[in-house]
């Protein structure tokens, strides 16, 4: 099984599995993988909410010692995000991770996470995917979100992470919790 780190307020108390992935809290010895992900321009340039996200491992690669291949979660719920090591792109891991996280999240917090202050925001999860159609990675992430039931919601102005003087209009995707869709 492959490890994914899962991160959100209170994540240190939770772990869960999907068919191929083990989701567990961030650990102190995960610093190398977090550094590697944040240092890889193929990965990190396109992320906007990756301050403290979680990871998962793939048992097909290391039977005895699963390795972390990605991070998923949210430090600013209801916004979630994920990153995946490029060697694992195109294998369905991101879709499996997002689906697994959504199921876990709503089973664990059916009324929304207690750290979310506004009642309206407890009804959905959202993802901000950066600049539309600018790169294959962005198009692939939009495909993942659509496969997982997210729908385009609105555009949101964000500061560019590389050039703060630039303002970007980024699409925001929303996934309603069970029983909350309008």
Describe the structure.
The protein is of the alpha+beta class and 182 residues long. Helix content is 23%, strand content 31%. The chain is built from four helices and nine strands, in the order E-E-E-H-H-E-E-E-H-E-H-E-E. The strands form two sheets. Strands 1, 2, 3, 4, 5 and 6 form a six-stranded mixed β-sheet that branches. A three-stranded antiparallel β-sheet has the order 7-9-8, with no helix packed on it. The longest helix is centred in the middle third of the chain and has 16 residues, at 93-108. The chain is globular.
Mean pLDDT: 81
Structural class: alpha+beta
Strand fraction: 25-35%
Give the N-to-C terminal Cα separation: 37 Å
The ordered string of helix (H) and strand (E) elements is: EEEHHEEEHEHEE
Q: How is this structure best summarized?
A:
Helices cover 23% and strands 31% of the residues. With 182 residues, it is of the alpha+beta class. The longest helix has 16 residues, at 93-108.
């Amino acid at each position: 099984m492959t490890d994914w780190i899962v991160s959100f307020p209170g994540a240190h108390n939770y772990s869960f599995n999907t068919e191929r992935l083990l989701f567990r809290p961030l650990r102190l010895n995960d610093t190398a993988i977090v550094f590697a992900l944040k240092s890889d321009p193929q990965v990190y340039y396109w992320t906007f909410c990756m301050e403290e996200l979680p990871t998962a491992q793939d048992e097909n690669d290391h039977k005895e010692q699963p390795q972390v291949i990605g991070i998923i979660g949210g430090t600013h719920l209801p916004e979630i995000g994920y990153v995946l090591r490029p060697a694992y792109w195109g294998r369905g891991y991101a879709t499996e991770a997002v689906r697994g996280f959504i199921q876990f999240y709503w089973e664990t917090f059916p009324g929304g996470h207690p750290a979310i202050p506004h009642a309206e925001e407890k009804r959905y999860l959202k993802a901000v995917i950066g600049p539309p159609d600018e790169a294959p990675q962005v198009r692939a992430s939009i495909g993942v979100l659509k496969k997982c039931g997210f729908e385009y919601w609105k555009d949101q102005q964000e500061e560019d992470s590389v050039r703060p003087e630039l303002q970007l209009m980024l699409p925001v995707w929303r996934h309603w919790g069970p029983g909350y869709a309008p």
